[in-house]
Amino acid sequence: MTEQEHLKWKSFWEDQAAVVDAHQAVRGDRIMTPDVQAFHDRELIKLVDPTPEDRILDAGCGAGDQILLLGSLVARITAIDFSPAMVARCQARIAAEPDVTAETIIEVADVTDLPYGDDTFDKAVSIAVQQYLNPEECDRMLTELARVVKPGGVIVFHVKDLWSPTGIMITFGRWLRASIKGRPPLEYQYRTHWWYKKRARRIGKITGSYAYGTWTPFMPKALMAAIASWESKYRFVQKRWPHGKEYFIRVTVN
Ligand SMILES: C[S@@+](CC[C@H](N)C(=O)[O-])C[C@H]1O[C@@H](n2cnc3c(N)ncnc32)[C@H](O)[C@@H]1O
């Protein structure tokens, strides 16, 4: 991804903030049904394991869903996004939320160049952001997060999974389209958890990365809920095939 593509993504998110409601702006996917959302939220809380003293960084906050989720469970959330329109939207949304008791700082910043000192945060989350970054940007983001999160702190990501039925279908479809029509300017990336693990390992300061799926599309709700509960109970995907269309990665800074 070139600098030009980076700017295109930025203007894409500026437009998203302006034209759709805050929730759809970041969760346009029709598969994000209430039970999937609930499962996602439950898993995220489990992985972050918030405490009342925690100072959390939300890297790529969008309209503020993670602030809503964690806002009554921690001391402070610093939420950043590179789209000024998205930040304005997030600020307005959170200001109207009485349940958010944590101190909140919501500001414009790029996840690849964080304006914070070393060891500023206990934990960080970055949900559905890395898929918009090229490999070098992913490295810069990981380096920056490992710098601003204190040793022993965790970072939780949520990304799109190449090694899933949807990931394979979409990637194959894109390859086919690209060979006929050429590559379109904007595409978010499906990547395997091995890819992310390798990137994280290269940063050196990060260990213990693992991943597991959150959900599989095109599945009856009841079956999906059953699998989701089985998944969360036995954590089987952690050691086997991470089959979900999207998955979490949790790493520890050392
Ligand atoms: C799919 S949305 C996810 C938002 C939020 N994390 C959530 O889960 O609701 C992706 C967000 O990442 C932001 N973003 C993408 N690249 C970024 C970057 N390099 N620096 C900061 N924010 C970025 C976009 O502006 C957008 O708001």
Number of strands: 7
What's the helical proportion of residues?
40-55%
- What does the radius of gyration come to? 18 Å
- Low-pLDDT regions: 231-243
Instruction: Give me the CATH superfamily.
Output: Vaccinia Virus protein VP39
CATH topology: Rossmann fold
Strand content: 15-25%
* Count of helix runs: 10
Q: What sequence of helices (H) and strands (E) makes up the elements?
A: HHHEHEHEEHEHHEHHE
Please describe the structure with a list of short key phrases separated by commas or semicolons.
254 residues, alpha/beta, Rossmann fold, seven-stranded mixed β-sheet, 10 helices, 7 strands, globular, binds S-adenosylmethionine
Give structural notes.
This protein is α/β, with parallel strands linked by helices. The chain has one domain (3-253): Vaccinia Virus protein VP39 (Rossmann fold, 3-Layer(aba) Sandwich), CATH 3.40.50. The chain is built from ten helices and seven strands. It has helices at residues 3-19, 22-26, 34-48, 65-70, 84-95, 135-148, 165-181, 193-203, 221-234, 236-239, and strands spanning 55-59, 76-81, 103-108, 121-127, 149-160, 206-215, 246-253. A seven-stranded mixed β-sheet has the order 3-2-1-4-5-7-6, sandwiched between helices. Helix 3 (34-48) runs parallel beside helix 9 (221-234). The protein starts with a helix and ends with a strand. Mean pLDDT is 82; it is low at 231-243. The site of S-adenosylmethionine has 19 residues, from helix 1 and helix 4.
What's the gist of this structure?
The chain contains ten helices and seven strands.
